[in-house]
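Incident review: delayed structure delivery

Summary: a single-chain prediction request sat in the queue longer than the usual turnaround. Root cause was a stuck worker, restarted by the on-call engineer. No data loss occurred. The affected request and its eventual output are reproduced below so the record is complete for anyone auditing the incident later.

Affected input:
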Amino acid sequence: MPRSKTQREDMIRYARMLSAIGTESRLRILRLLLLAHPEGMVAGKIQKELKISPSNLSHHLEKLKHEGVISVTREHTFRRYRANTEALQELLTFLYVECCKGSSVIRPESIVHMSR
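Output delivered after worker restart:
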């Protein structure tokens, strides 16, 4: 069944988001920002925590920001980075619905364990 233009655009967006977090450094940055949610972190603290050079960190942060995985706000001379939890929730929902729910190969309950 052909996909609508919106579905195709969503597919492209999610693919770009996955690509953006698809390196070890970016995944480590995202994990750190999720742990610091909702306050986020300034670039210097991210650099110190992950021991990434300033230019390398800047490159990774820009890619994550460009694909909507993180957001940035200016605070005086600093920039505070936060995980875009809404976009990440959309991505996880997409993966769950498109890749798990409609297939008997991967059982969703084996992935998602909800604590009571």
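Verification: The helical segments are 5-20, 24-35, 43-50, 54-66, 85-101, 108-111.
Action items: add queue-age alerting; document worker restart procedure.
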